[in-house]
Every structure is written in C-alpha cells, then in structure tokens.
Amino acid sequence: MSINAKWTGCAALATLVLGMGVGAVHADEIRVLNWKGYGTDSDWAVAEFKEKTGHTVVHDYFNSEQEMLTKLRTNPGAYDVVLINSAFTGQALEEGLISPIDTSDISNFADLAPNLGGNPELNVGGKVNGVAWVWGLTSFGVNKDEVSPLPTSIQVLWDDQYTGKVGWRDDALESVQFAALATGQNINDVKDLDAVKSKLETLLPQIKTFWSSENDWNQFFAAGDFLMAPYWSGSAGRSIAKGLPVAFVVPEEGAIGWLDGLSIPATSENREAAREFINYMIDPQFYVKWAESGAPASANAKAAAALPADDFNRATLGDPAVVARVQFMQPVSDETRKTYLELWQELKANAQ
Amino acid sequence: MSSTLARRDGLRAATMISPAYIWLTVAVFLPLAAMLFFSFLSEAPFGDREWFVTAANYMEFFEKGFYLKLLVRSLTLGLVVTGFCILIGFPCAFVLAKTIKGRWREALFLLVILPFWSNSLVRIFSWAIVLRGNGVIDSVLDLILPFEVSVNLMFSYPAIVIGLVHSYLPYVILTSYLALQAIDDNLIDAARSMGAPRRMILWRIIIPLALPGLIAGAVLIFVPVVGSFMEPRILGGRSGTFFGTVIEDQFVAVFNWPLGAALSFILLGVVLLILAVSSPVLRRAQ
C-alpha cells in the first residue's frame, strides 16, 4: 500500500467519524413521561418518528397525576415531553415544572379545534403551556350482553339489581364527581358535600373491586367480575375494538370531560426535538393510524374529520347533544383534594 | 504500657466494628431519620413549596377515627396470617426435621424455598388467577364434583389471607426447622421410654425447645404483614383497605409525604410497643 493510499484511507475515516459526529448533534434522545400504552409509546410511532427526524424516544411512565408531578419535581432534566391533564397544567406551571412552548415551528398547531387548543387551563397567562392533544369523557361502560335495555341514567350504578356487580376506580376526586353528577350538582363546585357523602356510602356495597388500569378493567370485565364500571371513553373504544361487549354510556345527568395536553418541562435540554415530537403527535396522519387501535378523540379538527364515519369517537363524542351534557374538569385545589381524599378514605374504612 | 496496649486494642476494635456501624447508619438510620423529619413537616420539602415544622400530621391520626379503625384491622390481619403460618408451617418443619431423612429432605427443603426465588408480585398475581370465579379452583372442583359449584374467593378477606400466608410461610418453616433440628432425638426417645404420650412430648419437650425459632418466625411475619399494601390491593378488591394501603395512598396518590411518614411512624411505634410488651412473656417462654 502506497503512502498516498494510506492518507486517503485516513481522510475517508476522518470524514466518516466527523460525519457521524455531526449526525449525533441532530439526533437527540428525547424522554417522554406518559401513561403506559397511551399513544406516544406505540412501537410503530416511535419507529416512524425516528425515521422522520432521527430522534430516538425513550419512555417513562406514571400511574397517577400525582406520581407524574412527583417525578417532575424529583428528577429535574430527566424529561423532555410530559403528558399533563389540563386540570393539572396550571399547577405544574405554578410550581415551575413546565415552561411555555414556542408554537411557531409546530406546523399542526393551527389545526387544533379552537375550544380545545384555546382551553383556558392550557393557556394561562396568554401563553401555550400545553398543546391540546386528545380529549375524552369519563363516564361508565356496561356489559351490553348482560344489561339490557342499556341504561340512560347514572343511577343504574346504585341499582339493587347490580349489587356486587359494579367496578370502581379507587380515586377520591372521581368518586366525588360521580356522586355530584348523580345528585345533580356541578362537578367543579360541589355545594352539598353531605349529599355526595351519603350517595357514596350507598355506593360502596355495590362495588365488587377497584380497577387501576385499562388492562385491569378489561380483565375484570372479561372475567365477569363486574358488569359496569366508570371508564374512559378512549379506553372504551379500545376495549370495543378488542371485541369486548362494552357499551359506553353518557348518561342524561352528564359526564366528566377531560383534556390531555403535551407540555415541555422547564428543565428540558432538548426543546427543539420535543416540539418536533409534539408536532408529530398532533399530526392527522399519526392520529388516524393510532385511532385504528382505539384512541381518545383528537384535539386536531383535521385529524377528527379524517376518521371513518362509524368510528367510536365520531359516533359517541361527535354528537353535539352529548357534548352539551359534558362538564369539563377544572383545576382542583390541594385543600379540596385533601377533603375529598379524607371523605373517601373514611367511607372505605367504615365499609369494611 | 498497658494503657497504650488498651488504646491500640480499642483502635483495632473500632476499625473492625466501624463497617457494620457505617452500614447501619447509611442503610437504616439515615433513611429513617429523613422520614422522621418529613413526618413533622407541613409540606413535602420539594420545589418551591413553603413548609414549617408541625405535629399536625400526628394529630390527624387521633382526630380521624378511621385511621385507628384501619390500624386495628391491619393488626388483626397480622395476627390471623401469623397464626395460619404457624399452624401450617410448624408441622411442615417438624416432618422435615424429624421424619424425613437424606436426599428427600433436601428436595423438599428446596420446594419450600422455591417460591422465594420468584417475585412476590408474580406470586400474588398467580393467586389472582387461581382464586377468581372460573379460575383454577373453580374449574377443578367443577370437574370432580357432580353438581355445579361456584368458588369465587377473589376480592375478599380470605383471598388476602391466602395470598399473605403463602408469601410468608417459608419464614416460619425455615426458623422452626433450624430450632427443631437442634433438638436431641435422645430426649424424645427418653420421654417415650418413660411412657410419655405423644401429646405430652409435643407440649413439654418439642414446643418449648423449638419456641425461639417459632417466635423468630412469627415476628418476621407479623411485622411486614401489618404494613402490607400490595397483597390487599390486588387480592382484596373493596375489602382491601388497610393501614398500609392508606399510607401508600398518601405517598403515591396525593403526594402527602408528611402524613404518610407520620402514619408510618405511628405503625412502627405500635409494632415496637407490641413487641416490647410481649417480650417478657416471650423471654420467659424461652
């Protein structure tokens, strides 16, 4: 081998190394904090996003909003994108856990439905602190093979006929809100807490068990442990897609509405890649593919319009009469939360 | 001269003991002290939260009647589970130590420890499969019995007890086995040759001599069962609310670490009190 050839070889190698170095600057690793199995961690989505942008996506999970806040508080710099329910976005901002997002390079942002993208909880201080991603309802699912005719009232959960056949989520806030709906009250401003308490007291004997995840719900439902239980509309869509005989009921008393946004933690060091990921997440193309396996309703109007006409989200959440009955969740103060938790724990303890 | 020697000895002793004490400090004392500190705060001291020192978390336990109710419930569960573990574990250990010899003993011993090698969560979930309606027990009974039966133990108090007994049984078997093995067979032979009936041998010789092992096993089981939360949550359903699950709620569900820590220390205090009160009785028994 001549000296020249050696030099050429070295130069080629150097170019290669340099090239890899440059590539590494653009290909970031972004860390996403979300519920497990909630869209962002679909294998195909992570692969497609890497293909499009070169960024790899790593996930960490939480099992409750409080756990999510705890993880943000105790691990600064560990996350780049975090899913926050709109009722918690204000609190996260106030604690300095997240910071406003520059939406100028999020091309899909303009397509968000105005009442969702402009949700006051996500836009405190006139800045976008969370990009509206998906929304849905917390109501209840019923086994349509065993319960007929389908109930139209929330009082069915208190029906003697179904004692020991009701599932529940062990969550104080949700329990109080269900009882508020059943006693004709505003879920965000419960005036008669005694009525709620006595309503929940009569509910406890109805309950067979508590579920804590979608997987739990499906298993308990399939095993016949309960015939009806509070459920999330997005999860109900997925359970129906799996072939479970679930009917999602939005009772005449109303239902609890929620909106999930994607935020960027204040301590994130990959904000640009994080915005690219958020843009990909609200893209109609991603949503339509996700919707095939059951997804909550998209906040992107174009994405919602791209769904087939018989889709669960279009059929159930698309009805204006249903939307009119929905009470959207507002932020809940720590004090109220504590009151509700004490009320719920006391009821559970006394029911043993 | 002698004083320097003594000093050197003291130094050597300190060097040899220090690893153990450093370990104790780092692994036991520091985390506990941090939790004790938390239990006297008004807020968990993370982020920009304002906090001050208060005893309100401890007062809460006395103000709200249901905490005491749940504590009693947890202590009862501890007693019930420990009782079943002894009832099942002691005879097992006796057979293992005194009746079975050689290879078989090793094989059976392995079977006793085997569950320990799997994750406890996995064990509890497998119990969930066995206990539920249309589960393993249900199907097997349906096959054997000519009439239709429906056994659905899932989401009930018995389910919690079954899961916990299975989880903690090996402790009592292991500790009793060691104690039983140390009993000289000649003692039993001597008693028998003098005409002692079996029951008398059991109550007058075997149990008193094996008591230290039995008590060690009981304490090892009682303490974690009183604070258990994972098993009641998964197997208990609606009846799965215990003192441990309430503490877990404070840490995980509402981020009220101070109240969670205070409740934990109340539990620790009550358990230590129980052990202290019963220790003279236990010592006399030994």
Describe the structure.
- The complex is a heterodimer of chains A (352) and B (286).
- By secondary structure, chain A is α/β, with parallel strands linked by helices.
- Chain A has two domains: 28-135 and 258-315, Periplasmic binding protein-like II (D-Maltodextrin-Binding Protein, domain 2, 3-Layer(aba) Sandwich), CATH 3.40.190; 136-257 and 328-350, Periplasmic binding protein-like II (D-Maltodextrin-Binding Protein, domain 2, 3-Layer(aba) Sandwich), CATH 3.40.190.
- In chain A, 43% of the residues lie in helices and 18% in strands.
- In chain A, strands 1, 2, 3, 4, 7, 8, 9, 10 and 11 form a nine-stranded mixed β-sheet that branches. Chain A has a two-stranded parallel ribbon with strand order 5-6.
- In chain A, helix 2 (43-53) links the parallel strand 1 and strand 2.
- In chain A, helix 6 crosses helix 7 and helix 6 (172-182) packs across helix 15.
- The model of chain A is unreliable at 10-25 (pLDDT under 50).
- Chain B has one domain (59-285): MetI-like fold, CATH 1.10.3720.10.
- Chain B has helices at residues 2-38, 56-63, 65-99, 103-113, 120-131, 136-144, 157-181, 185-193, 198-226, 230-236, 243-253, 257-285.
- With 286 residues, chain B is mainly alpha-helical.
- Chain B starts with a helix and ends with a helix.
- In chain B, 78% of the residues lie in helices and 0% in strands.
- Classes of the chains: A alpha/beta (352), B mainly alpha (286).
- At the A-B interface, helix 3, strand 6 and helix 15 of A face helix 3 and helix 11 of B.
Q: Approximately how much helix is present in the residues of chain B?
A: over 70%
Helix count of chain A equals 15
Shape of chain A: globular
CATH superfamily of the largest domain in chain A: Periplasmic binding protein-like II
Rg of chain A from C-alpha positions? 23 Å
